[in-house]
Specification:
- The chain is an alpha/beta fold.
- It has helices spanning about 15-20, 45-55, 75-85, 105-110, 120-125, 150-155, 165-170, 175-210, 215-225; strands at about 10, 35, 60-65, 70, 130, 145, 160-165.
- It is built from nine helices and seven strands, in the order βαβαββαααββαβααα.
- The protein has a five-stranded mixed beta sheet.
- Helix 2 crosses helix 4.
- The longest helix is centred in the last third of the chain and has 35 residues, at about 175-210.
- It is elongated.
- The chain starts with 8 loop residues before the first strand and ends with a helix.
Length: about 230
């Protein structure tokens, strides 16, 4: 069973259940804003799906772009990026093309290449996209989704080599990998504390409901209303 392209699953998720119940995006195809966690996704597959969603009118926020995966070894990725860096305007290099170093900008540029960005429609689509390293506020408090059709564990054979986009960026001048890892560590501590507090509240509420005793008259009213 293969998930359809573009369908997203909320995190945390059971991978088998996510594939089996890939219909979750049908109900939220045009949510006001969709936050995608890029960790563990393949760059090209993720970019093509996001590009199509943007052109359809969806607002998309990509977080943890430094954890995007690319097929092929890091050495191969270094050679490809070094070749890309050689491309410039001979008469005046300041005219471009510009070689972005930050992972969020590399992801953004990859998506831009799949969108007709020189037309009004394409420019409007790109305006609906935001890319970030790490998970900044307020997106750390929103439900994050994954796209099964772009996950490395589903699309790349286990013996194949792959690399992280953040590692490639740090080799070519991105200087914030340690900062992002430190901020992410702080965020995970806060997130874990929030999760424990939330689960304890839900558990207490469930136990309180079980202890409630309803009178016979109220029970009849509830049964008549269909809440019994």
């Amino acid at each position: 069973l293969k998930p359809e392209p573009g369908r997203a699953i909320p995190l945390p998720f059971d991978l088998d259940a996510a594939i089996a119940h890939g219909r979750v995006l049908d109900a939220m195809s045009f949510a006001k804003q969709m936050v995608i966690d890029c960790r563990g996704h393949l760059l090209g597959r993720l970019a093509s799906i996001i590009a199509k969603e943007l052109l359809n009118g969806q607002q998309v926020v990509l977080v943890r772009s430094e954890d995007v995966n690319m097929s092929g070894s890091l050495y191969r990725a270094k050679l490809k990026y070094a070749n890309f860096k050689r491309k410039k305007t001979n008469s005046n290099p300041r005219h471009g093309p510009f070689h972005q170093r930050a992972p969020s900008k590399i992801v953004w540029r990859t998506i831009r290449g799949m969108v007709p960005h020189k037309t009004a429609r394409g420019a409007a689509a790109l305006d609906r996209l935001k890319c970030f390293e790490g998970i900044p506020h307020p997106f750390d408090r929103k439900k994050r989704m994954v796209i099964p059709a772009a996950l490395k564990v589903l699309r790349l054979r286990p013996e194949r080599k792959f690399c992280r986009l953040g590692d490639l960026s740090s080799l070519f001048g991105w200087k914030h990998q340690e900062l992002i890892s430190r901020l992410e560590g702080q965020r995970k501590v806060k997130s874990e504390a929030f999760h424990k507090k939330r689960t304890s509240q839900v558990r207490a509420k469930t136990e309180a409901f079980k202890k409630v005793k309803v009178s016979a008259e109220d029970q009849k009213v509830l049964e008549a209303a269909g809440f019994a």
